[in-house]
Design a protein that fits this description.
Isoleucyl-tRNA Synthetase, Domain 1, ATP-binding, Gyrase A, domain 2, ligase, DALR anticodon binding domain-containing protein, 10 helices, ATP binding
Length: about 290
């Protein structure tokens, strides 16, 4: 398999966080830049409000989104995908960076032959994305049909209850403070009076794998119709249980590295609210927080 040739790249490219789906934010950001260009080559695409083709590459070592917008535009333009991608790249290169105090995502942007645009999220921006869960609401969707059989929900129920147990234990150990021990739907479960030290995460393979699955879950939930919520929930459950097996929270970790324990409990909290929302997409009855 030949490696795609990098033509040029820029760093940093910053985008202000407006919701918790990175895919959706990149799509909205690119659409805004096309509007600013106001070129005849983009008229058909813009007038038909077509979705921008952008997807995550399956690699947990680097959180990268690849965009095919130049290929979409070239079908209604005499220009090649590479020429169109270069035009967009040069426009993005001129974007001002947001101040450090602004909650934003920082990317390395690459222009690749024959016209791909790639956005790679820097690891430090993962902390900003994780922090945004305390600010932005859960990405609720309107579901018209609820499942009538729930036999396949047991692994989800178990993992959800396990998350709640760990969060209660974290409060008992005075690592975190819960807003409500009953975990009401669609609410961030932790008190926001103390920020979570996300930068304490070492981002080992199990932490990265869980975060990667969180990103995938949110992106698919918000950007795909019929996104198979139960499959997403079961995959997230599997990644979480693998994370719990290999990433200690209590015992020596909480005694000697309490900030790492707090950050890992933050990952537990995100998993809890995601699993709860995915469960409620299938049934009106909330999942049990104790088994």
């Amino acid at each position: 398999m030949t490696k795609t040739r990098i033509i040029k790249s820029i760093y940093p490219l910053t985008i202000k966080i407006i919701n918790i789906s990175i895919q959706q934010q990149l799509q909205q950001f690119l659409f805004t830049q096309l509007l600013n260009l106001d070129r005849a080559n983009f008229t058909h695409f813009l007038s038909n409000n077509l979705p921008i083709s952008l997807y995550r590459l399956p690699n947990i070592d680097a959180f990268t989104y690849r965009c095919a917008i130049a290929f979409q535009l070239s079908s209604h333009s005499p220009l090649s995908p590479l020429t169109l991608a270069d035009t967009i790249f040069n426009t993005l290169q001129q974007q001002p960076n947001h101040p450090e105090e602004t909650l934003s995502l920082t990317f390395t942007l690459k222009l690749l032959d024959p016209g791909w645009l790639e956005f790679t999220l820097c690891d430090r921006s993962l902390s900003c994305w994780l922090q945004s869960w305390q600010i932005f609401p859960y990405p609720r969707k309107r579901f018209t049909q609820k499942s009538t059989t729930h036999d396949n929900l047991w692994p989800l129920q178990y993992t959800y209850a396990r998350c709640c147990t760990l969060l209660r234990l974290g409060e008992q150990e005075q690592l975190i403070t819960l807003k409500n021990p009953l975990f009401p739907p669609y609410q961030w479960p932790l008190s926001t009076s103390h920020s979570i030290p996300w930068s304490s995460l070492g981002l080992n393979q199990f932490e990265r794998s869980l975060i990667s699955q969180m990103l995938l879950t949110v992106d698919r939930l918000l950007n795909e119709s019929g996104s198979h919520e139960i499959k997403l929930a079961l995959a997230l459950s599997e990644h979480f249980l693998e994370f719990e097996r290999h990433c200690r929270i209590f015992g020596a970790t909480s005694r000697y590295k309490p900030q790492l324990s707090q950050a890992r409990l933050g990952l537990v909290a995100i998993t809890q609210i995601l699993l709860q929302g995915l469960w409620l997409s299938q049934t009106e009855q909330p999942p049990r927080h104790r088994l």
